[in-house]
Specification:
Shape: globular
Number of strands: 20
Strand content: 25-35%
Radius of gyration: 22 Å
Largest sheet: 8 strands, antiparallel
Helix content: 25-40%
Number of helices: 15
Distance between the termini: 52 Å
Bound molecules: ligand MV4
């Protein structure tokens, strides 16, 4: 598979995802450049990279979000391309543009597609135009109360008010009737302007007990598009994903086929280039598109485990102008996979718990994958996201996957800091989870009932 990809890639990220990208590059014979803040001088992503450049002090806005420093690092190291990873600058269309203007390849979608999907109103409109079902709601944003009330009467209560520049659940408000809508609309508009720098809001019918199901897509921008199936990400608390699995226990084979075909056809029509994820709510046998993520996602490994496809390698190939390595007919799904996100947090209060890892032992054996930048003696810094490890389990069936998961969790040793491993141990022995019987609100109640 010798292919003219890149000679040197700068990875504009940290932690486990920087390592994940480094590994794909290394396998392809591509040199890597790590960037890091002063707080991350001893981090694993810096140790493993071929070269590293310090780009600023600990706060992310001065380092991992510092566009000028990252572009300078790419220039002095002679990188050909920049992989943004996830979070930080991954869905910043201006960053993607700046990268290309400075003569580097941005490993991701076109700035236009990033920008389109960044505005949730425009994204829904595009999805609708491409034949994807959307949640009934206001067509476009609502600027005043009269327009909101008219739209709400047509949609039906309860109504959810969402920010056009939001996403990920921040700044949403539920209005149960017209007086509540009148009260909450100005608050939602003010908060949206404050949080996202754009006061635009829109309305949707509030679905009371949906599941969050997303479809992984790869497009090569030259007509090739494949879907890599769905992920069920319903197990969240405070809009943070905790555990993801594929395939979803909620879908039957017909629904799965319908959803993935729908998503792939739309992305093909868009002419999308790169890895992307279409997020849906699923309730009572119906799918409703809500958002599209134009980046690699934290939970991508479960898709890799059941498909055998290295999603980061495909991202690198696509960015280099190559065609996808697979046609849809080549993609075979095998078994079941689960990812547990392990955070440096108290497992009951979820308060962050940075500090030194005094003992570390990762589980292993058949069907066990650990994506983590931890090592014995590492000091988890307090400045960044608290995700420290992902335990990814593959099994021939969901039952086998769960048996293996419980065994691997028992084997995992991370001492010196508190982690969410005990939460996962409880979850993995709880009947509702074992039965696949949950919606997006279930985990929040489960966590509360035990604190
Ligand atoms: C919704 C919804 C119910 N009805 N939209 C939260 C995150 C953002 N991406 C979308 N979210 C929701 N949108 C309508 N019309 C419920 C949620 C929601 C949710 C969605 C996915 C996963 C977890 C969630 C937790 C609470 C609410």
């Amino acid at each position: 598979m010798k292919l003219d990809v890149f000679e040197k890639v700068l990875i504009a990220n940290r932690g486990e995802i920087a390592l994940r990208i480094h590994r794909a590059c290394r396998e392809m014979g591509i040199q890597t450049v790590a960037v890091h803040s002063t707080a991350d001088a001893n981090a694993m992503h810096v140790r493993l990279a071929d070269e590293s450049v310090c780009i600023g002090p600990p706060p992310a806005r001065d380092s991992y979000l510092n566009v000028a420093a990252i572009l300078s690092a790419a220039t002095i190291s002679g990188a050909d391309a920049i992989h943004p990873g996830l979070g930080f600058l991954a869905e910043n269309a201006d960053f993607a543009t700046a990268v290309e203007e400075h003569g580097f390849t941005f490993i991701g979608p076109s700035p236009d597609h990033i920008r389109l999907m960044g505005n949730k109103v425009a994204a829904k409109e595009a999805a609708h135009r491409l034949g994807i079902p959307i949640v009934p709601g206001s067509r476009g944003s609502v600027s005043d109360l009269a327009a909101a009330e008219t739209a709400a009467r047509l949609i039906g209560y309860p109504i959810l008010i969402k920010a056009a520049a939001g996403g990920g659940g921040r700044g949403m408000k539920i209005a149960r009737d017209a007086p509540e809508l009148a009260q909450l609309l100005p608050i939602a508009q003010n908060e949206a302007a404050l949080f996202f720098g754009c006061g635009e809001v829109y309305l949707e019918r509030h679905l009371e007990r949906p599941r969050h199901i997303e479809v992984q897509i790869l497009g090569d921008g030259r007509g090739g598009v494949i879907n890599l199936g769905e992920r069920d990400c319903s197990l969240q608390r405070a809009h943070q994903k905790v555990l993801e699995e594929t395939p979803s226990t909620a879908l039957n084979p017909d629904e799965r086929k319908r959803l993935s075909a729908l998503a792939a056809a739309a992305v093909e029509e868009l002419g999308y280039k790169g890895a992307g994820t279409l997020e849906f709510l699923y309730q009572d046998g119906e799918f409703y598109f809500i958002e599209m993520n134009t980046r690699l996602q934290v939970e991508h490994p479960i898709t890799e485990m059941i498909s055998g496809i290295d999603i980061v390698r495909e991202q690198l190939r696509i960015a280099a102008g190559a065609a996808l390595s697979y046609r849809q007919a080549d993609v075979r799904f095998c078994g079941h996979a689960i990812e547990c996100r392990i955070n440096a947090e108290n497992p009951v209060t979820f308060l962050p718990c940075p500090g030194r890892v005094t003992d570390y032992h990762a589980p292993g054996g058949l069907g066990v994958r650990v994506d983590s930048a931890l090592y014995h003696g590492y000091e988890v810094p307090p400045y960044y996201d608290s995700l420290i490890a992902k335990l990814i389990i593959h099994g021939g069936s969901r039952d086998e996957c769960l048996m293996r998961l419980r065994r691997a969790l028992d084997e995992f040793v991370i001492d010196g800091i508190e982690t969410t491993i005990p939460l996962h141990q409880r979850l993995a022995t709880t009947p509702e989870f074992i039965d696949g019987d949950y919606d997006v609100h279930w985990l929040g109640r489960f966590v509360k009932s035990r604190s």
